[in-house]
Amino acid sequence: MELPFLKKYQPQRYEEFVIEKDYIHLLKTLINMDNLNILLIGDSGTGKTSLIEATIREYYEIDNIPKNNVLYINNLQEQGISYYRNEVKTFCQTSSGIHGKKKFIILDDIDIVNEQSQQVFRNCIDKYSHKVHFLASCCNIQKTIESIQSRCTLIKLKQNETQLLSQVIKRIKTKENIDISPQAEIFIMNICNNSIRLLINYLEKFSLLDEPITLNIAKKICTNISYYDFERYTNAWYVNKSLPEGIAIIYNIFDKGYSVMDILDSYFQFIKICNIIDENNKYKIIHNICQYISYFHTLHEHEIELVFFTDQLIRNVNDN
Predict the structure, then answer these.
(1) Domain ATPase AAA-type core spans what residues (predicted)?
(2) What CATH code would you report for 227-318?
């Protein structure tokens, strides 16, 4: 059975990563020091989980991670690590199955477990670091307690730059024989929010189509709401200054089954890469979108608000 692209192209060893080499050099140094209490910090899609698993392979110098030597702790928000207290204790007290090597405890997204559970994790580090390595990851370092931060080497992963994303596209399109136009490549790099995971998902969609991928095709299949509809909507209210035309288009989007919040969220993403609108007006539009989203988080949303939203956009632009 063919593996999903995310599994197929997940880096297994350090040399397969398309991140800055300084990260790899640091991790190799920590392996040589046998000091792998590490907290990886970075946005979703920056490769934290893949780096953790690759670090285990590099440490043991094998391709298959030894299951008996690695304990993965699920970040169950209510239960947290305290739910695994006895299991963790037993795991830490038993000997490593690989002579001369420590075991590993892995906790992804430690920032979403409660402080009490983080304290349990901290206690494990204090008590068992002589025989167990502790690898953790988080998106928000502010939600990770100081006592864990002080016991780990903190590695902040930068957002993936366009050059790195382009390398991923080049590698996969070559291996999978995907015919994709340069414009479509730029488009998916713009809308993937610097997430390699999302970028690979887009490429898998292209592979399944089995046809040349143009910018038009990419716009149709890589967004929940067609960017064509948003382009027509933007031309209606921004270029033509036509409130009735804009309302008709955005109501047509609503009638396809999308909620008002769906539309505003997607339009927010569209505006960021839209080349129809100048930067000053983009700022005003994004401000309007955020106001409406905040409003709907506290009050019940209604499709009539799309009329007021469109009217507000036109009036703001006319104020220039």
Answers:
(1) 38-154
(2) 1.20.272.10
Q: Which residues of 137-175 are buried (b: 16+ CB within 10 A; e: fewer)?
A: bbbeeeebeeebeeebbebebeebeeebbeebbeebbee
Give yes or no for residue 258 having a pLDDT over 80.
Answer: yes
CA 15 and chain centroid, separation: 22
Give the Cα separation of 288 and 294 in Å (integer): 10
Q: Can you give the pLDDT at residue 296?
A: 77
DSSP element (H, E) containing 293: helix 279-298
Q: In which residue ranges of the chain is CATH 1.10.8 found? A: 162-221
| pLDDT over 90 (residue 176) | yes
- Measured in whole angstroms, the distance separating CA 119 from the mean position of its chain's CA atoms is 27
How many residues make up the chain in this entry? 320
Cα–Cα distances in angstroms (integers) from residue 147 to residues 90, 105, 110, 144, 289, in the given order: 23, 17, 13, 9, 39
| Cα dihedral: 294, 300, 303, 305 (round 10) | -50
Q: What are the tens digits of pLDDT across the range 111-145?
A: 888 888 888 889 889 999 999 999 999 999 999 99
CATH class of 162-221: mainly alpha
> Could you tell me where in the chain the CATH 3.40.50.300 domains are found?
5-156
Q: What CATH architecture does domain 5-156 belong to?
A: 3-Layer(aba) Sandwich (3.40)
Whose CA is closest to 267, among 247, 241, 294, 286?
286
Say if residue 1's pLDDT is above 70. Answer: no
Task: Report DSSP letters for 64-93, one per residue.
Answer: S--GGGEEEPP--TTTTGGGGHHHHHHHHH
Counting beta carbons within 10 angstroms of the beta carbon of residue 134, is it exposed (0 to 12), middle (13 to 18) or buried (19 or more)?
buried
CA–CA separation, 32 and 192 (whole Å): 36
In this predicted structure, what is the pLDDT of residue 310?
93
* CA within 13 Å, CB half, 279: 0
Coil, helix or strand for 156?
Answer: strand
Structure tokens at 49: 């989980």
